[in-house]
Design goal:
By secondary structure, this protein is of the alpha/beta class. 31% of the residues lie in helices and 25% in strands. The strands form three sheets. It has a nine-stranded mixed beta sheet, with helices on both faces. A five-stranded parallel beta sheet has the order 12-11-10-13-14, sandwiched between helices. Helix 6 links the parallel strand 10 and strand 11. Helix 6 packs across helix 11. The structure holds xanthosine-5'-monophosphate (XMP).
């Protein structure tokens, strides 16, 4: 699997590090295309078929002597392409080239100070004026004997061979993680590797991507028709706009209003895509159908299944009305695809059955168009700007497929939905007014299925609790709750209570993920 074999790139061989995706992102941020491939799936022959300018061997939870647990084709070292080994990658490179690796006497986890020993192109502008730098370590093993013809560039107190190189062969090894932000000037080290050592040219900007992707879509689709499930979120919006630029009226987007959307969302989607961007859009108002099917259902998994299944049914119903469709467009992203995700062999238990608008109607025998499958989320956002989508769409917080249904534990009623839409609207508006919206990864209001007693004026009230959630996160896999000021919380709480009938108490969720999840159900 590859975007384009002619495109020059840096290939990252993944040994299962939690930071592998970060390496790829950092390199792309530096303007160079990079791809990740599992150590199980790469060999010299495959490398030779592509235009690879540099190899990076990632970290990983393995030990270099556990040979049965990983593959490393020694021939990769003989192709003449510069190689940078990071953490485990440094150890496997060293061991393969005649060095030794052993358990560290002192494991290093977290920040460590390293000191320069010799000059190197790799570390140009990397050390401070005392020839030191703080780097992020995470290792229990270390290189204990230098591989043949290498020299030391930097050492830490606990590991002498922290940065090593063999300039002639263009082999470089670092025991720490330059890709994580905690490593001071880590990006400079990666930049040096790319531009001084691999001598690669910049080839990865939003403009490059836009042109390349539009051409690819034209090539793949030809004069055939494409349908696309549009949710109004950033991924499906970017997909729709890309395909529309490539094939114009041969694209039809289907937007299903399931009644579980945020306030005014359906009107905004129709206004943007149909009126402003002039995209063929079929608007399906299926509010009643969804609410009817969800009546008296309070089990979270049942809700998700009902919504997912009904969505497929309705999507198929409308898709069939469009004649001669050959392709279905989806907003699949690179992290969904990376083959080596389970390289460590860990099988995560199923927490929730996620439902997204794409990828559903397999039975329809349509071929897939997945223009974003080589992009990370932040790249999709930049591409969206390049495609003239409004900032409102681009920087929108993620919104789950099952929508407000999973922000309303218990049964779903039109009355409760109305209350929740208003509460969410006040919260999000206040975040925008206070310039906090873009600092937060995701924020929403939820309606809890309990009523509590309050007093308003001189009267007793007995109404619902509104829960507010706001988190910071890199990718939604882990999250921390956002720290609001008392004034902000007070203002939101007052607005919700004063303006919305049906809520008399506002609470803030102060749990991280884990142990909680971001959504309530
Ligand atoms: P959780 O609740 O699993 O959410 O911590 C992680 C991220 O995923 C979003 N989410 C979904 N997105 N379909 C989606 O497209 C779903 O069924 C779904 N469930 C959760 C959630 O909003 C958060 O951003």
């Amino acid at each position: 699997m590859s975007l384009d074999n002619n495109l020059s790139k840096i290939l990252i061989i993944d040994f299962g590090s939690q930071f592998t995706q970060l390496i790829a992102r950092r390199i792309r941020e530096l303007g160079v295309f990079s791809e990740i491939v599992s150590h199980k799936k790469i060999n010299k022959k495959l490398i030779k078929k592509q235009n690879i300018k540099g190899l990076i061997l990632s970290g990983g939870p393995l030990n270099v002597y556990e040979k049965d647990k990983f593959n490393f084709d020694k021939n990769l070292l003989k192709i003449g392409i510069p190689i940078l080994g990071i953490c485990f990658g440094h150890q496997i490179l060293s061991k393969t080239l005649g060095g030794k690796v052993k358990k560290s006497n002192h494991r290093e986890f977290g920040l460590a100070e390293i000191k320069k020993v010799s000059n190197s192109q790799l570390t140009k502008n990397f050390f401070n004026n005392k020839n030191k730098n703080n780097v992020w370590m995470s290792h229990a093993d270390q290189v204990s004997k230098m591989p043949i013809n290498f020299k030391i560039i930097a050492s830490s107190k606990n590991s002498k061979l922290t940065i090593i190189e063999n300039v002639k062969e263009k082999y470089y090894g670092v025991q720490f993680h330059p890709e994580v932000t905690h490593t001071n000037k880590g990006k400079i080290l990666l930049r040096n590797f790319l531009f001084f050592i691999c001598k690669v040219k910049k080839n990865w900007s939003s403009k490059d991507q836009k042109l390349k992707l539009i051409n690819q879509i034209k090539e793949q689709v030809g004069n055939n028709k494409v349908i696309c499930g549009l949710s109004g979120g950033v991924d499906s919006s970017v997909v729709a706009q890309l395909i529309s630029k490539a094939i114009g009226k041969n694209l039809t987007c289907i937007f299903v209003n399931n009644g579980l959307l945020r306030k005014n969302e359906e009107a905004q989607v129709v206004k943007t895509f149909k009126k402003k961007l002039k995209i063929n859009l079929v608007y399906v108002n299926a509010e009643k159908e969804f609410i009817k099917k969800l009546k008296n259902v309070s089990d979270p998994e049942k809700k998700r299944k009902i919504i997912g299944n009904l969505f497929i049914k309705i999507f198929e119903r409308y898709a069939k009305k469009i004649k001669n469709v050959k392709f279905l467009a989806q907003g699949t992203l690179y992290p969904d695809l990376i083959e080596s995700k389970s390289v460590t062999g860990s099988q995560t238990s199923k927490i929730k059955s996620h439902h997204n608008v794409g990828g559903l109607p397999k039975k329809m025998k349509l071929k897939l168009v997945e223009p974003l499958k080589f992009l990370f989320k932040d790249e999709v956002r930049k591409l969206g700007l390049e495609l003239n989508l409004s900032k409102d769409i681009i920087s929108r917080h993620p919104f789950p497929g099952p929508g407000l249904a999973i922000r309303m534990p218990g049964n779903i009623t039109i009355h409760k939905l109305k209350i929740l839409k208003e509460a969410d609207y006040y919260f999000i508006n206040e975040l925008k007014k206070s310039h906090l919206y873009d600092k937060i990864w995701q924020a929403y209001a939820a309606l809890l299925p309990v009523k509590t007693v309050g007093v308003m004026g001189d009267n007793r009230t007995y109404e619902y609790i509104c829960l507010l959630r706001a988190i910071t996160s890199e990718d939604g896999m882990t999250a921390d709750f956002f720290n609001f000021s008392k004034e902000f919380m007070q203002s939101v709480s007052n607005q919700i209570i004063n303006n919305i009938r049906g809520i008399n108490r506002v609470v803030y969720d102060v749990t991280s993920k884990p142990p909680s999840t971001i959504e309530l159900e």
